[in-house]
Design brief:
This protein is α/β, with parallel strands linked by helices. It is built from 13 helices and 15 strands. It starts with a strand and ends in a 9-residue tail after the last helix.
């Protein structure tokens, strides 16, 4: 198969869909790999590195799309990229369609087949291609939250762990999956006073054991969320319903009652966000204020640590890239049930039911 990797064009996005090791493996499997020039330069991978691994370098994204059958990316295709998709294309990347009707309609109109990293799901309910980026985003959420609590960044001027004789910052994490747990780990490591909120009592019990009863665990309901949010210096939203819009658990009224200079970080913003006042931002303009509360809502948080993120991501995406390249989408889906859930758009039809419901678009049952 002819596989193409264009340079990412989302604002301040330096990750890349394949690293030289992945290229070498795909070429060894008998595929042809085409990389847009300078695609990996943001993380120190040169065109020569790719050439030495067996890839061919093309001058621009147009050439990549025209040459390749499968397009491997990191972030969702931008409008100019959607226009280059054709019915024969297989797009393999993060999509996050549930909060993006324009992208969804564009992909449907292209007639292409689009595989979403974030919805490939084994029977155990895990999301193996989302996990590494959730780990990165969770750890970053605490890191950036601590930074924006500084007065020089507009915050109230509190150190997350405090020092002897002063209070520690109060941090609330809503949603305790992979991202939330990693946010808690970082907050605990920095010495904060942490509250974890989740719907699963089993998960709360696991966290209680994991952190040796050193965090407060609360069942997720409007009362507990409101009390915790109002008492917090930093609130991290990490709610995920696979493939669906995130529910709005923190209301604007709650935000209006928080202390001025408090900070909220919504990791779920690429799925619509779980904090009502959050709208997507970029690494160029990452924050805004609502009622004196700083909001950090960057939809591609891991892009700020692109080198770590790229290698963590490509470690898990290569498996399915090889499978698609060797067997095609239909056969790969028959071989691996987890892969079926990754198919969001199939030859122009929207085949992921939850996205169709959230966006009120026509749903077509997948028929291979």
């Amino acid at each position: 198969m002819k596989i193409g990797v264009p340079k990412e064009i989302k604002v301040k996005e330096s990750r890349v869909g394949l690293v030289p090791g992945g290229v070498r493996q795909l070429v060894h499997d008998g595929n042809e790999v085409y990389i847009e020039t300078k695609a990996g330069l943001g993380i120190g991978i040169t065109d020569e590195d790719y050439i030495n691994s067996g890839a061919k370098i093309l001058p621009d994204a147009k050439s990549v799309f025209e040459t390749a059958e499968m397009i491997i990316k990191v972030k969702e295709p931008q409008p100019v990229e959607i226009e280059m998709l054709r019915p024969h294309h297989i797009l393999y990347t993060y999509l996050h369609l549930a909060a993006d009707p324009d992208q969804t309609k564009g992909l449907m109109n292209s007639g292409s087949t689009c595989i979403a990293y974030e919805t490939i799901q084994p029977e155990d309910g895990s999301l193996p291609l989302l996990t590494p980026m959730s780990e990165v985003a969770g750890r970053m959420a605490t890191q950036v939250g601590a930074s924006y609590l500084q007065i020089d960044h507009g915050g109230k001027g509190i150190l997350l762990g405090g020092v002897p004789g002063t209070r520690r910052a109060k941090v609330t994490v809503i949603g305790c999956g992979i991202a939330g747990t990693n946010a808690i780990k970082m907050a605990m490591g920095m010495g904060a006073d942490v509250t974890a909120i989740d719907l699963s009592t089993k998960r709360l019990a696991e966290l209680d054991d994991l952190f040796d009863n050193r965090i407060t665990t609360l069942f997720s309901n409007i009362h507990n969320i409101e009390e915790s949010v109002l008492a917090s210096d930093l609130v991290i939203g990490a709610v995920l319903i696979p493939g669906a819009k995130a529910p709005k658990l923190v209301t604007r009224e709650m935000i209006s009652k928080m202390d001025e200079g408090s900070v909220v970080v919504d990791i779920a913003v690429d799925q619509g966000g779980c904090i009502e006042t959050c709208t997507p931002t970029t690494h160029e303009n990452p924050t805004f204020e609502v009622d004196g509360v700083i909001h950090y809502c960057v939809a591609n948080m891991p892009g700020a640590v692109a080198q770590t993120s790229t290698y963590a991501l490509t470690n898990v995406t290569l498996k399915y890239a090889r499978m698609i390249a060797k067997h095609g989408v239909d056969e790969a889906a028959k071989m691996d049930k987890a892969f079926i859930k990754g198919i969001n758009v199939y030859k122009g039809d929207l085949v992921y039911e939850q996205v169709a419901k959230d966006l009120e678009l026509p749903y077509t049952q997948l028929s291979l």
